[in-house]
Amino acid sequence: MKVLVIGAGNMGLTYAQGMSKSKLLKKRNIMILDTSEEKIQELNKISHFDVYEDLKDCVPQADIVFIAVKPYHSEELFKALAPLLNKEQILISIMAGITIDYMKDLTGLDKVVRAMPNLPAQIGKGLTSYIASDAVSKVELILVENLLDTTGKSILVSNENFIDASTGISGSGPAYVFYFMQSMMEAALQMGFSKNISKVLVSETFTGAVELFNQSDYSPNKWMDMVASKGGTTRAALDSMEDNNVNELIKEAAFAAFNRAVELGK
Ligand SMILES: NC(=O)C1=CN([C@@H]2O[C@H](COP(=O)(O)OP(=O)(O)OC[C@H]3O[C@@H](n4cnc5c(N)ncnc54)[C@H](O)[C@@H]3O)[C@@H](O)[C@H]2O)C=CC1
Ligand SMILES: O=C(O)[C@@H]1CCC=N1
């Protein structure tokens, strides 16, 4: 079986590397294509994959075509791909917003999978939600799941709306965490800590809190109560967040990403 990854950026290269560790594929079964000259040179230096610049040299050999270009490049790419594809091939896209119907229309393929990963895939800690068109068989779906799981965990969702919704939570979510980290690091610097110490204080706090959360069934609210003493420092911070409506603003931000994903599909 051969997989062709189109778009060797943050996510495409991550998946190519993840899939190369799959027992289902060997390294030489992964082809990778990019249009950027700079990227091709980089791939030729570091990569153990077969690197391509021209669709016609690799698309016909692929069983699975994995699309990892930006959504605004999709139309042009699908138009170029369409004449080279055959109905047996499975298309997997990780592009935000781009719908299964749109991909089927432009490529002429029936077997299309839409997935939404996130950046921790780079270290095997990704979370990918996915859904497939009806033409993808159960066996093929297991194969797809195996490939997605090479970068972390995956969740099969029951309708395509959940792909846009998970874009607002897990897809874009790492950036919300980094936003919070950035604010806390800026506060630590303002309190007089060095850059290095600020980084350690913040990153260990995030790691420890997430590990605690993962080791029990307690809700985040319950954990907050365990940190906060009555009339103490944490309550002062949490009250400040509540007074400033931070909870609502974070939810609004997640919905902004969700809505943008829906908009990208139109
Ligand atoms: N970065 C992230 O955290 C996440 C990104 N995604 C999705 O993954 C996709 C890729 O995102 P990134 O990897 O961050 O982008 P990127 O900009 O790092 O990589 C895109 C690559 O596609 C190449 N490219 C552009 N047009 C092409 C074409 N016609 N044929 C072949 N290659 C072409 C570019 O040269 C570039 O190397 C996007 O659609 C995005 O919505 C999904 C979840 C998370
Ligand atoms: O920002 C974006 O559009 C992509 C999708 C989810 C994360 N990055």
UniProtKB/TrEMBL annotation:
Domain Pyrroline-5-carboxylate reductase dimerisation: 160-264
Molecular-function annotations in GO: pyrroline-5-carboxylate reductase activity
Keywords from the UniProt entry: Amino-acid biosynthesis, Cytoplasm, NADP, Oxidoreductase, Proline biosynthesis
Pyrroline-5-carboxylate reductase catalytic N-terminal domain span: 2-97
Family label: Belongs to the pyrroline-5-carboxylate reductase family.
Free-text function comment from the UniProt entry: Catalyzes the reduction of 1-pyrroline-5-carboxylate (PCA) to L-proline.
Protein name in the entry: Pyrroline-5-carboxylate reductase
Lineage summary: Bacteria, Pseudomonadati, Bacteroidota, Flavobacteriia, Flavobacteriales
